[in-house]
Amino acid sequence: MKHAHIAFIGGGNMATSLIAGLVADGYEPQRLIVSDPVPATLAGLRGRFGIRTVADNASALREADTLVLCVKPQVAASVCRDLAPAISERIGLVISVMAGVRETAIQRWLGAAIPIVRAMPNTPAMLQAGAIGLHASDHVSAVQRNEAETILRAVGMVRWMTDEDQMDAVTAISGSGPAYFFLLMESLERAGVALGLTAEDARLLTIQTALGAARMAIEGGDPPDVLRARVTSPGGTTEAALKVFATAGFGDLVARAATAARERAGQLSDHLTEQS
Questions:
Q1: For residue 49, what are the CA distances in angstroms to 17, 24, 27, 178?
Q2: pLDDT recorded at residue 83
Q3: Main localisation, per the record (predicted)?
Q4: What count of other Cβ atoms lies within 10 Å of the Cβ of residue 149?
């Protein structure tokens, strides 16, 4: 894996996060190359990581074994079509972090039967704390799966999906999920202020509580329902609050929200796939 040359098409936040994680893991910077149309982006990446950069996509592919597509979904079709003439047998694997772009569309645009791994990271990946869903096309070997997992593990936890349609559910749960937690934190902050706390105290108490709860869930090994029961004393304050959530149908509301996100993810994927 550490001998592969990896070409990143697009030098935005996700490419930067992946490069940062790989370099921190000991990957040789000169085996990483990025193409991006913005000179300042390339200069920043060169200065920060010591990697190679080019202004045109075809040049990035000349020595690459693995191609990582990090462009916006709206330009996926045009970028892939432009790359098609430069795709050679040397490129053994394509990894796509383009949200909602299906493997069949990437294959069609690249014009080559090439192994593809789709990745759905979320924004905490920028802090190497992401939750990433992966799906491999039929032609991806065990070695290539391991390579893709190694690259994406540089920015967080990875889980493999057996069916590509599950990537829409990944989008609904972890892709959009940070916003759900931010909404709860925002609401708790407002409630704290309404109950007499200063805005700063309400914010810091909320953030630290969210961090502590997440750490308990990750490090303790117990599922959330067990953790919730453990901190809920009969007749206590937590029980009083949870009864309000239950009466309002909090669980059903979360399920409806996640379903709406999954359905929208499918609609967006259908639209992108239909691009000629």
A1: 11, 10, 11, 28
A2: 93
A3: cytoplasm
A4: 19
